[in-house]
Amino acid sequence: MQRWRGISASPGLVIAPAKTWRRAALRVDWRTPPGGDAAHERERLERALEMTRAELSSLRSQLRQQLGEEQAQILDAQLLILEDEDFLSVVDRAIESERLSAEAAFTRAMAEALIPLDLRGDGLFRERMTDFRDVEQRVVRALTGGSDPVPQLDEACILVTPQLTPSETAALDLAHVRGFCVDEGGHTGHTAIIARSLGVPAVVGLRDFSGRVEDGVDLAIDGATGEVMVDPDAATLRRFEVRIRRRRQAEERLLRIRDVAAETTDGRRVELSANIELPQEVDLALANGARGIGLVRTEYFYLSTSHLPSEEEQVASYRDLLERVGDAPVIFRALDVGGDKLLAAMGGMREYNPFLGLRGARFLLSHPEILHTQLRALYRASRYGSMKIMFPMVCDLEELRAFQSEAAAVRDVCTARATNSTPNSSSGS
Amino acid sequence: MALRTAHIGDPVGLHLRAASRIVQVAKQFECDIRIAYSGVETNAKSILGLASLVARHRDPIDVIAVGPDEAEALDALVHLIEVELAEEA
Q: Which of residues 7 through 36 in chain B touch A, CB cutoff 8 A?
């Protein structure tokens, strides 16, 4: 038995076989990009490097917070590659004189740089290769926006993987996933969000765990403490099963009071609603006694694709959610991005002090095409339930009025188009 | 030009985190800095270059600096390689 400790991302206890999965190597198109020119390729590369830098920096600060500065320094080498002038000048030359695409030039320069490391072949150097290959993957992924096919899951398992992008998670058959063990990530990453919404345990920040565990071996994970036991012995299994049983009993005790009215001691009735991000969470919320959905954060619908979701895609998601809720009230919050949540689909915009800047209301009002698409989708879906729309991060009356007039304009168009239906919605903020 | 020989203080040798620290410190100086070990010479400001050196504990590596702040650069790097990285290990 082996014991690992990572970062708690979603509580819960589970014993299940490991399903290890590693993203397939990226395919790079070596042909000269049609119509592309060196300047354009260099610009693409610059943007991809910038995105990768942002990714790694946020990962670094997560690690620093959770495991300390020394662990966080592991990522410095990767960050330094992005500004390694010797290396980047080789990439540049390949773009310039051989007319290679940015991804082809980067991949080849990396392969050349790794030759001396490959020739040594001892452990320390293999570790370096992995780190450098990881940067390469990130940069190429940032350039191509590609995501790879996810593993086929046909029985209960704990998914063990180096990292999981939102789009990959969205493509997984989550019904079979009993837990997550992810090498990367922190408490607030999207794996954590997904796992909590599914009510399954997740441990992240496990460093090189996925490369050291065999497919199919039994894992016992405690999502609350971040503990992972590989091939647990009989005594550990027994202890785990006892804890699982106790947990279930505690949950059953709580379920017994589920339908007791939510009332203060002086008799004031409180509406108990749930905040959610995914349509699947509705079932969990209602099963636990929520009377409605007080907040649907719609960011997830955007983060789970590498393009901006179309109106049709959004209508389908919102409709699914509303139908699951039935008659209970649902409040959708319009897209709240900016700040720490950058839209991959937009290539990630950057600004100083993003927490106070172009986010929420300001972001939407300065991107009317995104706002209008979302509002149209919401109004069209509104006939499948009872919904309200909330605007995020409104600062002043002017912003509120701007929203109301945008919303009214979109609503009128939708109503006019769908004369035989009665949109059943109102807006607030 | 200034040259000094430093002995790797870290018991694990020149691992990746140590190499990163060297690059970070080297970048604070204006002068060109090269590191030579066992017949291979590389730019001290390039992580991929440094990563290709397999220097072990107590191995001697030459630090060569050329530029206005070469003396300070050598002081800082030799101290880092011989003392600081050994203490942090």
A: 12-13, 15-17, 19-21, 23-24
**What pLDDT, in 10s, does the model give residues A192-211?**
777 877 788 999 989 889 99
- Res. B74: pLDDT tops 90: yes
What is the pLDDT, as a whole number, of residue A351?
Answer: 43
pTM to 2 decimals? 0.55
A179-184 average pLDDT score: 91
**Residue of higher predicted confidence among A399 and A196:** A399
pLDDT at A332: 96
Question: What CATH number matches the domain at A34-144, 2.60.120.560, 3.90.1300.10, 3.30.750.24, 1.10.274.10?
Answer: 1.10.274.10
> What are A62-71's contacts with CB under 8 Å, separation 24+?
A62/A185, A62/A186, A62/A188, A62/A189, A62/A205, A63/A186, A63/A205, A65/A186, A66/A7, A66/A186, A66/A187, A66/A205, A67/A7, A67/A205, A70/B88
Instruction: Tell me the two tokens of residue A10.
Output: 């979603």
**End-to-end Cα separation, chain A, in angstroms:** 54
Residue ranges covered by each domain of chain A? 2-21+151-255, 34-144, 274-423
Digit-coded pLDDT (tens) for A414-423 = 888 876 544 4
List pLDDT tens digits, range B1-47: 999 999 999 888 888 888 999 999 999 999 999 999 988 899 999 99
Measured between CB atoms, does A320 come within 8 Å of chain B? no
Q: What is the pLDDT of residue B16?
A: 82
Report in angstroms the alpha-carbon separations of A89 from A84, A92, A99: 9, 5, 14
For residues A371 and A334, give the distance between their C-alpha atoms in angstroms, rounded to a whole number.
Answer: 8
For residue A122, the chain B residues in CB contact (below 8 A) are 54
**Region A369-391: what's the mean pLDDT?**
94
- Please answer whether residues B74 and B65 qualify as being in contact, where contact means their C-beta atoms are separated by less than 8 angstroms: yes
* Closest among A328, A253, A333 to A299, alpha carbons compared: A333
- Radius of gyration of chain A from Cα atoms? 24
Domain A2-21+151-255, CATH number (from 3.50.30.10, 1.10.3720.10, 3.40.190.10, 3.40.50.300) = 3.50.30.10
Please check whether residue B78 touches A, CB under 8 A: no
Indicate the CATH number of A274-423 among 3.20.20.60, 3.40.50.300, 1.10.8.420, 3.40.50.880: 3.20.20.60
- The reply to whether residue A116 touches residue B46, judged by beta carbons under 8 angstroms, is no
Report the Cα–Cα distance between both ends of chain B, in Å, rounded: 31
